[in-house]
């Protein structure tokens, strides 16, 4: 640190200097000190700013650190409360364990309750009833906002879905009068992003039915050990909300051809599928519930699921042809501010492999090009560049997936 004001040497000879000399040298020293002061102040400001930055970083890292330290909890079901504690069965590995519980917790627990346990299997908290799981695994929409007009290039498929799903929901009496049972379930199959979910949502919208969606892969991978029960719950929720359209996406995850291996994972998938088949066979109790399932892997399906009375209407939902792509471009640009001269036929011809989802992505990307360029109007060039970009992204993804294969 520099000297304090009290002990500085005077910049002149006390005895010899004249008054004017003293003033001049003091002025000189003052100027130097002022400029140093200025410099120090700037440095101090910079240091403060730097300090703030590090402070924020520290807070972020501390937060992150805290989050990482919180170890995950596991889910288990209480089997029995004994004088020594509670017998719990862990989800996932199905192992039973006797664990101690506090008196306070003991009062709250009953057999069949779901609980969260920590690494040493102590019960940390009681979880909500099934509604909690249902809410996490099922998507329930009382009036999905998709209409038939939002779907392009699938007229035949739309017609068939309407006959098989909409008619029985709106005029169940007609089937009774004629004396036939309406098809139990409809299976939509085809590549990803072609509009299968949209079709199911649109039919629910049109019939004022509740749309209930569940993904097959989640059933078996995320809620291991609970698949069969969740299928039962799913149909129950559908009955409670009838008329309802039950949409089971990625059905191949629960209804794929039996493999030779006898791992417990397979047995669990089998149980889930058997439950699904039995729910579908119990037609009388199903009420006004129509089932639509979807898959990208038709070749993988277990033939049992395709027997009469189950998914006996198979509807292929392919990638759109040129006319279809043109219509889908029109649909997805309905609300976009387009420049004159955009030719959808040309765009459709330039995108031979695109699915509906790809076309939607391309329209959004074209809009992003305009925004990056500070324009509000989207030009043909934006679409062409968007197409180029998405194609390149696709190639990179394919390369990546090959690299990891
Ligand atoms: N035929 C179509 N007409 C208009 N938009 C479409 C069409 N197909 C797909 N899209 C767009 O792509 C998005 C995804 O479509 P959707 O979820 O229905 O595909 P999917 O066939 O169910 O796909 P996945 O098999 O991956 O679940 C839709 O929200 C929509 O924006």
TrEMBL record:
Q: Which terms in the Gene Ontology molecular function aspect does this entry carry?
A: ATP binding; ATP hydrolysis activity
Q: Where does ATP bind?
A: 193-198, 332
Q: Which Pfam families match?
A: AAA (PF00004), AAA_lid_3 (PF17862), Prot_ATP_ID_OB_C (PF16450)
Q: SMART domains annotated for this entry? A: AAA
Disordered as annotated region, ranges = 1-23
Location (main, coarse): cytoplasm
GO BP terms: namely: proteasomal protein catabolic process; protein unfolding
Q: Which keywords fit this entry according to its UniProt record?
A: ATP-binding, Chaperone, Coiled coil, Cytoplasm, Nucleotide-binding, Proteasome
Bias (Acidic residues) ranges: 1-12
Please name the InterPro entries in this protein's record: 26S_Proteasome_ATPase, AAA+_ATPase, AAA_lid_3, ATPase_AAA_core, ATPase_AAA_CS, NA-bd_OB-fold, Nucleotidase_PAN, P-loop_NTPase
**Annotated compartments:** Cytoplasm
Q: Which residues form the AAA+ ATPase domain?
A: 182-321
Recorded GO CC terms = cytoplasm; proteasome-activating nucleotidase complex
Outline the subunit composition. Answer: Homohexamer. The hexameric complex has a two-ring architecture resembling a top hat that caps the 20S proteasome core at one or both ends. Upon ATP-binding, the C-terminus of PAN interacts with the alpha-rings of the proteasome core by binding to the intersubunit pockets.
- Identify its protein family: Belongs to the AAA ATPase family.
Provide the function of this protein. ATPase which is responsible for recognizing, binding, unfolding and translocation of substrate proteins into the archaeal 20S proteasome core particle. Is essential for opening the gate of the 20S proteasome via an interaction with its C-terminus, thereby allowing substrate entry and access to the site of proteolysis. Thus, the C-termini of the proteasomal ATPase function like a 'key in a lock' to induce gate opening and therefore regulate proteolysis.
Give the domain section of the comments: Consists of three main regions, an N-terminal coiled-coil domain that may assist in substrate recognition, an interdomain involved in PAN hexamerization, and a C-terminal ATPase domain of the AAA type.
Q: Name the chain's protein.
A: Proteasome-activating nucleotidase
* Gene source species: Halorubrum ejinorense
What are the top taxonomic ranks of the organism? Archaea, Methanobacteriati, Methanobacteriota, Stenosarchaea group, Halobacteria
What gene makes this protein? pan
């Amino acid at each position: 640190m520099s000297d304090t004001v009290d002990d500085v040497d005077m910049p002149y000879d006390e005895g010899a200097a004249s008054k004017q000399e003293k003033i001049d040298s003091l002025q000189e020293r003052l100027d130097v000190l002022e400029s140093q002061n200025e410099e120090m102040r700037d440095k101090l400001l910079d240091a403060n700013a730097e300090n703030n930055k590090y402070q924020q970083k520290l807070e972020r890292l501390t937060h992150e650190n805290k989050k990482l330290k919180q170890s995950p909890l596991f889910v288990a079901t209480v089997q029995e409360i004994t004088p020594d504690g509670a017998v719990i069965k862990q989800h996932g590995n199905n192992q039973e364990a006797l664990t101690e519980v506090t008196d306070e917790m003991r009062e709250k627990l009953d057999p069949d309750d779901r609980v969260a346990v920590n690494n040493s299997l102590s019960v940390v908290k009681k979880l909500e009833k099934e509604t909690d799981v249902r809410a996490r695994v099922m998507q329930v929409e009382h009036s999905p906002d998709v209409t038939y007009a939002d779907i392009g290039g699938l007229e035949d498929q739309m017609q068939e879905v309407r006959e098989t799903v909409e008619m029985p929901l709106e005029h169940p009496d007609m089937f009774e009068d004629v004396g036939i049972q309406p098809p139990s379930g409809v299976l939509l199959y085809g590549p990803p992003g072609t509009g299968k979910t949209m079709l199911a949502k649109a039919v629910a919208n049109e019939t004022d039915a509740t749309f209930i969606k569940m993904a097959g892969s989640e059933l078996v991978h995320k809620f291991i050990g609970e698949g069969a029960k969740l299928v039962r719950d799913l149909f129950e929720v559908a009955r409670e909300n009838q008329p309802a359209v039950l949409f089971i996406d990625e059905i191949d995850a629960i209804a794929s051809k039996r493999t030779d291996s006898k791992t417990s994972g397979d047995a669990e998938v089998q149980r889930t599928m058997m439950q699904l088949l039995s729910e579908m066979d119990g037609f009388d109790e199903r009420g006004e519930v129509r089932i639509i399932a979807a898959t990208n892997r038709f070749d993988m399906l277990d033939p049992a699921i395709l027997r009469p009375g189950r998914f006996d209407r198979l509807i292929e939902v392919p990638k759109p042809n040129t006319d279809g792509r043109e219509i889908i471009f029109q649909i997805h640009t309905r609300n976009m501010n387009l420049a004159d001269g955009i030719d959808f036929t040309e765009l459709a011809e330039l995108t031979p492999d695109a699915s509906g989802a790809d076309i939607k992505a391309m329209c959004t990307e074209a809009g992003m090009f305009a925004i990056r360029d500070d324009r509000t109007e989207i030009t043909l060039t934006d679409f062409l560049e968007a197409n180029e970009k998405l194609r390149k992204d696709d190639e990179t993804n394919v390369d990546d997936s090959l690299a990891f294969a």
